[in-house]
Design a protein that fits this description.
seven-stranded mixed beta sheet, 466 residues, 6% strand
Length: 466
């Protein structure tokens, strides 16, 4: 089941009521929708006038207790700017950054939506930060058309990063986006890259070969064939060797060379962006970032002593082992939304750690652990929300607010490490893991624009009633 997760009211009871009330809707869809929205507004009014109103912190917002015995978390109005507010007000900017923001206006708006205040921390690894990096890369690439430089000096970088933050915040993005994505002014400079002049760059690499490989990237094929990635690596290696004559037998020298190559890759991507229109640049850079994020598990694994105690060697009590596993996995579910391929990697990583700690039995099968159990959960029914391996950008419209598409209850079993082979990789797998969502299966919450100014205490998934 694939759903669109939206910013919305804490209305799980209404959701469940209408999810099982299709006979009513069959009589008159318009009356059903009207009655539903009326209940929404009544619930809204009741929540606003609670005497103990207050905002909840991020942890409560992500995994609230919505049991029938506990009152739902209250909320307060928050007059946030619209993610699509044009940044035509020059007073937002310092005037000290010469980047051409209007040229990448659509990318800026997309970034603001992907990094929207409420979703940014939980979409950071997969959606928000890759889009922010793509935008910054394109902005600097475009600036090279008139500056002829593929980097900014540190002073200019500080001013520009500050302006980017202010512009995105004015459009509804999270105020701490720089911290969330670990972006520093140094990321906009040349770092240890030896060549930043466009003319010098093009005299060393083969521009036509680079554009032929990266001018257009198929986001599915590229992750397996790595045509553009290989071209970028080759160009970066060529550039990194300029003026570098250290003895590569030294561990320090090898590390230094690796760092230089990584810095050179950033410059190569900026050059590629400068030779594409904004839309194409965004597609190429996001396609490359998808290949990167799907190769690793972004979760932090906490101490697993209790699991090892109950599940190591010969398991004496299956109930005790599975209780310990459920408790451990619940800690992973408090971190972030991840893609289905990231979940596959997380299952493998955790399995290897457990095996090294003397847990030899397949506790995933024993305790019915699925891939969706590694991602952030949505609602009181604990639906694991897995993003497709090619995650969709968050979207904004007056009807559904800010939302994104994810898979719910796709019960793909987590694979114990001994079961993982090359056939289950992202390029040649037997498991049915979707790369992109089907448009016909996308479903959205029902909200009108009167509800958009509110920041709510939980993520709610509403079944589409029409």
């Amino acid at each position: 089941m694939r759903q669109r997760v939206s910013s919305g009211l804490n209305l799980l009871s209404l959701t469940l009521l209408f999810a099982h009330s299709r006979p009513c809707c069959s009589v008159s869809k318009l009356w059903c929708l009207f009655f539903f929205l009326l209940l929404l507004m009544l619930n809204l009014c009741a929540g606003v006038y609670k005497s103990h109103c207050g905002l909840v912190d991020n942890a409560e917002a992500i995994s609230p207790d919505i049991s029938s015995s506990v009152d739902p978390q209250p909320y307060l109005p928050l007059l946030a700017p619209s993610p699509l507010t044009p940044f035509t007000n020059n007073s937002i900017r310092s005037g000290l950054c010469t980047l051409n923001f209007p040229a990448a206006g659509d990318m800026m708006s997309k970034t603001a939506t992907d990094c929207w205040a409420f979703f940014a921390p939980v979409l950071a690894n997969v959606v928000c930060c890759p889009q922010l990096e793509a935008t910054l890369t394109t902005l600097i690439g475009y600036s090279s058309k008139y500056s002829r430089m593929l980097s900014l000096n540190i002073t200019h970088a500080k001013h520009c990063l500050s302006d980017v933050e202010k512009i995105l915040e004015s459009q509804g993005a999270n105020k701490t986006i720089q911290k969330i994505c670990s972006i520093q002014p140094e990321n906009l400079t040349e770092a240890s890259f030896p060549i930043t002049d466009v003319d010098a760059f093009e005299s060393i690499v083969d521009p036509s070969k680079l554009l032929a490989a990266c001018g257009k990237v198929d986001p599915v094929i590229e992750c397996c064939q790595e045509v553009c990635q290989t071209a970028i690596s080759d160009a970066a290696r060529q550039l990194s060797e300029i003026g570098f004559a250290a003895n590569l037998e030294s561990v320090h020298a090898v590390h230094e060379q690796s760092t230089r190559i990584d810095n050179c890759k950033n410059i190569v991507r900026r050059w590629i962006a400068s030779n594409l229109d904004a839309s194409s640049s965004n597609k190429v850079l996001r396609g490359l970032s998808n290949c990167k994020v799907n190769k690793v598990c972004p979760l932090v694994f906490p101490n697993m002593t209790h699991v090892v105690k109950e599940c190591a060697s010969t398991i004496t009590s299956q109930a005790a082992c599975c209780k310990a596993m459920d408790s451990y996995v619940s800690q992973l579910q408090e971190q972030s939304f991840i893609t289905n391929l990231q979940a596959l990697n997380c299952a493998a990583s955790l399995g290897v750690k457990l095996q090294k700690a003397n847990v030899s039995q397949n506790v995933y099968e024993l305790c019915h652990i699925n891939l969706k159990d590694f991602s952030l959960q949505v609602g009181s029914q604990e639906y694991g929300c897995l993003l497709p391996s090619l995650p969709s950008d968050a979207t904004f419209d007056k009807t559904s607010g800010v939302s994104f598409i994810c898979d719910l209850n796709d019960n793909v079993a987590a694979l114990w490490p001994s079961s993982i082979s090359k056939s289950s990789s992202s390029c040649n797998r037997t498991m049915k893991i979707p790369a992109v969502p089907k448009a016909t299966s996308a479903q959205g919450g029902l909200y009108n624009n009167l509800m958009l100014p509110f920041f709510f205490s939980s993520l709610v998934v509403l079944k589409l009633l029409l």
